[in-house]
Design a protein that fits this description.
InterPro entries: Thioredoxin-like_sf (IPR036249). Pfam families: Thioredoxin_9. It comes from Flavivirga spongiicola. The protein has 205 residues and is of the alpha+beta class. It has a single domain, classed as Glutaredoxin (3-Layer(aba) Sandwich). The chain is 55% helix and 12% strand. The protein has 9 helices and 4 strands. Strand 3 and strand 4 form a beta hairpin. It is globular, with a radius of gyration of 17 Å.
Length: 205
């Protein structure tokens, strides 16, 4: 596991470099990942616009800023993604905004299809769901926690629908996009603070 994570960190890029990559891919009518279908290319274009909007509009309360800033242990947040992933376009800008609030958090991005061993080590219910955030202790290299692919409320929303209908429909996926737009990243922020609370009590004071 240590070697897999180390190798993936070596291929990781900053959030800004990832944003630049997605922006260029959108211009070039391309996408990340092993498949370059028209549908995935169109999702990449849509996600470039989504992330640009979230980068400008995410709001974090003063209380949340103080609690995030209270975390004192050096960490790396390594997130697995692809440019075509709808959930990632909503989630990753919020993860980055939170990481920017604490100098002890180093935020890195890797692509799923370029890091198959890493993805296989961090499956969600047996699936290669993204985005997947891996929180690493910089001093020990230990995996402290993981997060994703969706925030807690969206996960519950999806699970209830699957239990009732068996699979996600296009209509439901559209409803989920509306949920993200209405929630404005607040559920993600709350989830991350809860995780930081578990890791360091000072965040919860």
């Amino acid at each position: 596991m240590d070697i897999i994570i180390k190798n993936s960190l070596g291929k990781s890029i900053s959030y800004q470099a990832y944003r630049d990559l997605v922006k260029q891919l959108a211009k070039d009518n391309s996408t990340t990942g092993n498949e370059k279908t028209e549908a995935l290319i169109n999702y990449t274009k849509l996600n470039d616009r989504r992330m640009k909007r979230w980068d400008k509009t995410i709001k974090i309360t003063d209380e949340a800023i103080n609690r995030i800033g209270a975390f004192k242990e050096p960490m790396t947040w390594l997130v697995i993604t692809e440019s075509w992933c709808g959930d990632a376009a909503h989630v990753i800008p919020v993860l980055n905004k939170v990481a920017e609030l604490n100098d002890n958090i180093d935020f890195k991005v890797v692509l799923r299809d370029e890091n198959p061993e890493l993805m296989d080590a961090f499956l969600t219910n047996g699936g290669k769901a993204i985005p997947k955030l891996i929180m690493l202790d910089n001093n020990t290299g230990d995996v402290l926690n993981t997060y994703g692919p969706r925030p807690s409320e969206a996960t519950n929303y999806v699970n209830r629908f699957k239990a009732k209908h068996g699979k996600l429909t296009p209509e439901f996926k559209e409803d989920l996009q509306h949920w993200y737009n209405t929630n404005k990243g607040q559920n993600i922020i709350d989830d991350l603070i809860d995780i930081l609370c578990e890791l360091e009590s000072s965040v919860c004071l």
